[in-house]
C-alpha cells in the first residue's frame, strides 16, 4: 500500500495512548491508563501521570505493534501530541517519539491535542467536510472550533471562561458522593432520574450572551448544584442523587448543543463533530442527535473509546499531515503545555 503507516503517541494527560493508522484506516488503538492511581486524589496528579507514562510507553508500543501485525521498521512516520496538556506528561511522549523517529530515520509530526480530537473522526466516518464545526468537551477543554482544514486551519470560536464541561461533571459527582472521574457515574445515575430542578445555563442570555456567544461557563452551575445539595442536607432531607444528576446533565447538554448549533448556522457548517471525554455522555449524544436532525445538520460522533484521549487520534492526524504533504517537525520539537490551536 502507498498509504502512509503512522504510529501516534498521546500522553497529554493520564492515558498512554498508542495508535497505528494506515492512511485513513485505524489498525490498532492501544491504551494504558493511570486513572486508578489518581482516583484516591480526586483528580489527575501530574507527577504520577508522568511516571506512569514512562513505565507504560514501551510495553504499550510493543502491544500495539503486535496487535496490528506491524514491525517498527514498517512505519512511515511518527506522530506525537506536543501540546496542550500536562508538561511532564507531554515530555515523556515527545521524547519517546523523537527516539523512534531518530532511530528509524522517520519524519516526526508534533500535533495539537485539540486538532487530533477532531481528526480521529476521519478513521471513524471518513474525510471531514470542509468546514466542519467541532465541539470539543473533555476534562481539560470545552471549545467550539471551526475547522476548514484539520491539518492547518483550526479556528477557536469560543471556549470555557472557567471550568471545562468534564471538570463540572467531576466536581458535581464529588458533591453527590460519586467516584472520580464522575462523568460516567452521573450519566448512569441520571438514567433513573427526572429533570426536577431548573439549574442555570451560563452565558445564554442578555449581555453575557452577547459578549460570549460561543463561550461556556460551568462554574455557576456547579455552585448552584452545591448550594442546592447543601440546603437539602441542612434541612435534614435525603439527596435525590438521580434527579440532581439528571437536572445538572440537562443544563450542561442544553447549553453545549444550543451553542454548537448556533455556531454551525452562523458559520455555514452543515456538519457538527463532537469529541472529548464528555462526548461519551448518553444524554449529550441523544440531544445533539435530536437538535441536529431538526436543524438539518449532520452529526458525527466517534465511538466513545475514540472520544476520550487515545493514540489513534494522533496517528490519524499524523497520517493526514503526511497525505497532505505537510512539513515534518524538527527533532528539537518542544512540548508546549499551553499550545493554542
Ligand atoms: O477526553 P478525556 O478522556 O480527557 C481529557 O480531559 O482530555 O475526558 C475526560 C473527562 C472527565 O471529566 C470525565 O468525567 C468525562 O470526560 N466523561 C464524561 C463521560 N465519560 C467521561 N462526562 C459525562 N458523561 C460521560 N459518560
Ligand atoms: Zn483530550
Low-pLDDT residue intervals, each spanning 5 or more residues: none
- Which architecture of the largest domain would the CATH scheme give at its second level? 2-Layer Sandwich
Number of helices: 13
According to CATH, what is the class of the largest domain?
Answer: Alpha Beta
CATH superfamily of the largest domain: ATPase, nucleotide binding domain
- The helix fraction, in percent, is 40-55%
| Small-molecule binders | 5'-O-[(R)-(carboxyoxy)(hydroxy)phosphoryl]adenosine, zinc ion
| Measured distance between first and last alpha carbons | 32 Å
Computed Rg: 20 Å
The domain count comes to 2
Shape: globular
What's the story with the biggest beta sheet? 5 strands, mixed
Would you tell me the overall average pLDDT? Answer: 96
Give the amount of beta strand, in percent. 15-25%
CATH topology of the largest domain: Nucleotidyltransferase, domain 5
Q: How many DSSP E strands?
A: 10
**What is the helix/strand order?**
EEEHHEHEHHEEEHHHHHEHEHH
**Spatial strand order of the main sheet:** 3-2-1-4-5
Structural class: alpha/beta
GO molecular function: iron ion binding; metallopeptidase activity; tRNA N(6)-L-threonylcarbamoyladenine synthase activity
InterPro entries: ATPase_NBD, Gcp-like_dom, KAE1/TsaD, Peptidase_M22_CS, TsaD
Catalytic activity: L-threonylcarbamoyladenylate + adenosine(37) in tRNA = N(6)-L-threonylcarbamoyladenosine(37) in tRNA + AMP + H(+)
GO biological process, one term: proteolysis
Amino acid at each position: 500500500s502507498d498509504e502512509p503507516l503512522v504510529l501516534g503517541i498521546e500522553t497529554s494527560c493520564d492515558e498512554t495512548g498508542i495508535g497505528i493508522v494506515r492512511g485513513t484506516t485505524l489498525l490498532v488503538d492501544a491504551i494504558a491508563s493511570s486513572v486508578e492511581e489518581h482516583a484516591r486524589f480526586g483528580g489527575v496528579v501530574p507527577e504520577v501521570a508522568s511516571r506512569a507514562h514512562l513505565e507504560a510507553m514501551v510495553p504499550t508500543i510493543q502491544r500495539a505493534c503486535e496487535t496490528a501485525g506491524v514491525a517498527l521498521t514498517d512505519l512511515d512516520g511518527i506522530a506525537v501530541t506536543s501540546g496542550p496538556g500536562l508538561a511532564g506528561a507531554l515530555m515523556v511522549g515527545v521524547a519517546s517519539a523523537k527516539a523512534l523517529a531518530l532511530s528509524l530515520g522517520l519524519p516526526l509530526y508534533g500535533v495539537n491535542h485539540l486538532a487530533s480530537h477532531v481528526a480521529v473522526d476521519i478513521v471513524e466516518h471518513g474525510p471531514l467536510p470542509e468546514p466542519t464545526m467541532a465541539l470539543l468537551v473533555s476534562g481539560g477543554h470545552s471549545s467550539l472550533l471551526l475547522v476548514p482544514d484539520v491539518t492547518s486551519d483550526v479556528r477557536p470560536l469560543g471556549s470555557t471562561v472557567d471550568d471545562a464541561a468534564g471538570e463540572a461533571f467531576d466536581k458535581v459527582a464529588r458533591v453527590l458522593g460519586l467516584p472520580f472521574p464522575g462523568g460516567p457515574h452521573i450519566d448512569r445515575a441520571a438514567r433513573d432520574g427526572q429533570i426536577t430542578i431548573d439549574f442555570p445555563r451560563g452565558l445564554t442570555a442578555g449581555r453575557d450572551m452577547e459578549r460570549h456567544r460561543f463561550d461556556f461557563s460551568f462554574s455557576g452551575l456547579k455552585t448552584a448544584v452545591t448550594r442546592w445539595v447543601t440546603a437539602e442536607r441542612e434541612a435534614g432531607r435525603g439527596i435525590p442523587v438521580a434527579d440532581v444528576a439528571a437536572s445538572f446533565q440537562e443544563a450542561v447538554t442544553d447549553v453545549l448543543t444550543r451553542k454548537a448549533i448556533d455556531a454551525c448556522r452562523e458559520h455555514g457548517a452543515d456538519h457538527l463533530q463532537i469529541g472529548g471525554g464528555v462526548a461519551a455522555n448518553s444524554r449529550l449524544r441523544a440531544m445533539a442527535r435530536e437538535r441536529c436532525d431538526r436543524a438539518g445538520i449532520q452529526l458525527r460522533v466517534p465511538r466513545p473509546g475514540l472520544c476520550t484521549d487515545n493514540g489513534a487520534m494522533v496517528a490519524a492526524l499524523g497520517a493526514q499531515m503526511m497525505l497532505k504533504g505537510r512539513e515534518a517537525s524538527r527533532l528539537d520539537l518542544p512540548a508546549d503545555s499551553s499550545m493554542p490551536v
